[in-house]
F-box domain-containing protein
Amino acid sequence: TPMDMICHDLLDLPWECVQEILGFLDANELCLAAGVCRSFASLCMSGCLWRALCIKSRHGQFLDFKQMLGAFDHPDACPQLMRRAEPASAASSCAALPDQHSSAIDWRKVYARSRNSLSSTICIDTGRGYAKYGLACAEPRSIQICQPNAEATQETVYAHAFKRLGLKRVDLPSYSLIVAEPFRLAGADAAAERSRWRAETERRLLQLYGLRRICIVDSASLCLFASQLTSGIVVNIGFALTFIVPVVGGNIVRSAVRTLRLGGMALTQFYHELLCRLGVDLHSSSMVAPITAA
């Protein structure tokens, strides 16, 4: 059959070339390809392909995740500390895994555990004007906070988020929570306030809601993780302030963080005045053409 011919032609290629081709497939496509024949099944189950999916799809590269996301107990959370796993103790499994390049790791199971953990992990970014929340496997939602007639406050936003996600208090011990640390706490001069905020957030959430695990990660690093990066400069334009946060290897360079007293409100007012001076009718429903002004 034509499929047999394609399979035969591919298997005539060097093993490295076939692996390179299969590396373009996602997890579902690899599983489908594994059903073509026994040879393909063996190639598609290769650990290097599934390890690449773990890194590409779920984690940034060259980052010690034990430090940043170590609260989530799965093998890829600490790639630099992997030793042979001891099945008798789940609590010590993260520190007792084999070397990350060893064939002893079943990277398909690592990938499956990572995927499964996404459905039981809640992400919340409290923000200032709007709080963003959602399950790690779904699109985020938002709640208006800290404004007149807002739906919630900084203190009640967690309860609102859990309720909107359809989670009852009895469900929460089965869930983990990632909380985004506010940008205002990124600088070196905010060290004391940062420690107090973290301690209070952990105490309140663990005691009040009984969540399985809580991991607090700075917002700048999360922005980079979302793009599979661990180093870069993050510029956050807030309502009243703009934060410039350099990150190297997943760690903020706190002494280099800068805060500008210019935010979205001032920029909105500036562009409103600019458009009014140019005679643009802001009350019109038609699209405004691009305007360039010196």
About this structure: The radius of gyration is 24 Å. Residues 58-103 have pLDDT under 50 and may be disordered.
